Amino acid sequence: MEKIPQRTILFLIADTGAGHRSAANAIRNAITLISQREQEVWHARQQIVSGTSTGAREQPATAVSSASPPTYRIEIVDVFEEYSRFPLREAVKLYGPAIRYNPKMYGRVFRLSNKYRSLTAVQTVASPLIHNGLLRLITSVQPDVIVSIHPLLNQFTLKALQDLHLHIPFITVVTDLVSLHYSWFAPGADAYIVPTEEARELYLARKLDPDRVHVLGMPIDPKFTRPTASKQELQRKTGLEPGLPVVLLVGGGDGAGGLQVAVRAISRARLPVQLLIITGRNKRLYAYLQRTRKNLRVPAKVFGFVQNMPEMMRASDVIITKAGPGTINEALACDLPIILSGYVPGQEEGNVDFVLKNDVGILAHDSIELVDGLRRLIKPGSVTMRRQVANAKRLSRPHASFDIASCILGFLPPAGQPGPWQTSLARKRRPWAGVELMQGRDACVARAPEQYQKEIVHGKVLLWRPGRNGRRNDAWARICCRSDSQTRSAYLSLRRGPQPSSLPESPVSPPILAWTAAPVGDACPRHPPDDHVCQYRHRRGRSRCSCSCHP
Q: pTM here?
């Protein structure tokens, strides 16, 4: 049985809000479930074929050991946080405070940048701050497919792929319903996955290839496709009172969206309801509501960030939330009428139009409209409730994550064929091919093939391969070790620049964790003097032996 290579899928996100990571996790979970299903079917077929072949002695061993389904390695990377430079890395972190404290200013920035010229200027300024990081990421992960779930990463990634001279399928998954930023549709991607027909019309208005756009819905967690207990059982499990309408208040992953104002308005109105409040990651709001919960005039349960959102939604009758696309689609999957308590100007304005146009909810501009709309929905035998529930069932696409996952898997190389990094053409285009990186106990050890030459220049270990004329190739690699919040791994930092011999003679301080040469007479006693495995690492002016054999 031939060994099927593991396929690697790289998801590019940015934690500007919780929606992009939630979408990536939803697709990853769907791919995992699809892979498990493929493995189970393959094992069942193998057992059937094995039983048939053992019963017939005269038949030789046929394709009992057919090729097994491929396995998938999935990497989800916050590119701005882990691979961009200052000030771009810090500027992205302003998204949360901007939408919380000054949403109007954010809306103006969104509209100003939602044009070709403005976007081109932003990309020109920001590209030098992220381009080399993307090259490091792609060459270290070596993905078979790249999936972008953030609009600002599309053009940067396509430019990096052009510089690598490798055709790696690049797919854009749009996570906005209607108000799409201009950067979502960067020309050159292999596929564009959009959630609504309105988004598809915006794509076609850009005069792009209509065969590359796919309307597959918004990716939500596959848990929303699983059956749950009845509403009465879920309410009893959550500690709610039976027979009293349940209003779910959600502010998104960051807990924004006017939750505190909505809770006060419902409490002052003394509506015959009970509240189920989810504050997300807003710990300050969670602590405040826990302190004041006893003073509310309606029963209330307060939770922070939860993992059982399908059970929470199916235990409720109405949901009050901001106009986030993920929460809207999750509510539609649970047949919940929606009351929108707010929206982010610019990117979420189209989500409000989507809810109102399809008659699955209302927009409450103030607390009075919120209380009036909620009173109409909870009224016994409410016609508005029945109509909006029916519309939600018509619009919901709970299996969208599986459809998107199947589309992404369709761009992987067929079984038995090499990926883009295993082809001979790819190896020729990568002068650093063959350099093996290993992680020791406290160090990263680099072993280069024989055709590479190692040289110490200004305290840095440079690897270079002689060209056809025997001279030094100007494509050289520097070995370094990077530490981030998720992993500590070794990688090659690619550079194209002047010849090492032409570097300035002035002393240059090596970067943190860059390799330095072992001082004369102080080599490692456990290795020969000419062995390059044992090196000394320079960090903050101190050197110490860092080979893996030392404690």
A: 0.75
